[in-house]
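Contributing new records

If you add data, match the layout below exactly. Sequence lines come first and carry their own label; structure lines follow with theirs. Keep one chain per record. Anything else will be rejected by the validation script.
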Amino acid sequence: MRSPPEKVFEYFASFRTPEGKLFMTPEDLMRAVVPVFPPSESNLVRDGYLRGERRPGELRCAPSEFFMLFDMNNDGLISFKEYIFFVTLLSIPESSFSVAFKMFDIDCNGEIDREEFKRVMALMRAHNRQGAVHRDGLRAGLRIGGSVENGGLVECFFGKDGKECLQHEKFVQFLRSLHDEMVRLEFAHYDYKSRGTISPKDFALSMVASADMRHLNKLLDRVDELNNDSNLSNVRVTFEEFKNFAELRKQLQPFSLALFSYGKANGLLTKKDFQRAASQVCGVALTDNVVEIIFHVFDANRDGSLSSDEFVRVLQKRERDIAQPTEAGIMDFLSCCWNCTNNRSIARFLS
């Protein structure tokens, strides 16, 4: 079962006021959203914790200035409502925001103002699994003034006076930069010795970090076996290779369809098939070393064929845990957009 957002917030928030109110630091926010294990090249001891259990303090990388944008009142702390705003942004597929943007862009000039943006974000949050029960951005039982769409990040978009307009491309680029920053932070965590590369074991740990606890032990056993693989013992994974795999995760739906379709037709899925599916369907180039590591972890019976269902299940859970909305939620969201804009022309909606 997935933890409700207030439980996640309480688990990772490290600052408590004298009045007992909890806040996150930007570092806490990073730890809450980037699933990681301790890097294999460190000497971290995890006594007293279940194998595979995450805990505060695991993310080992420099603080992110990008994440400071979510500190809306510039006090160095992130409230629960700011956290909800953050996970809502993480959940937005670019295609869905583009549709919403066009619906609220009344004069068709490619820009929306602050009030229109707040309406878009309120709708997005209403159809996000974490934000749906916290539409005002408040924790149950607490009264906190102010809107979740006010503060530092909105000031970044609309200026200090709130009178600037937000261009579609600027916001889409912000979303891309947000996801890129998460990938960078995760890689930096595993690059414990700042070598610019990580070990095959750390790359494998990053893949299985979000796996269901019921299947995690067997996956971690396979990860540990990488130390005994002579073909991979001297391999290093670069940031470019790590980032390319992250791009593949973003396109998991078409990629998994290609894997299952090809595997069903041919009975098995080889490493070359896997690379070809990534390249032709998703436009992502995976190196031989990366594919070797993937197959080491997910080729359960070592017959040279990928266990596609297990591989996809692990990656799907990671994407769900980063608060991807459901397909039904997106359709409801689009319906709300339609009603809230007084049934404007379908032709303009699709343009």
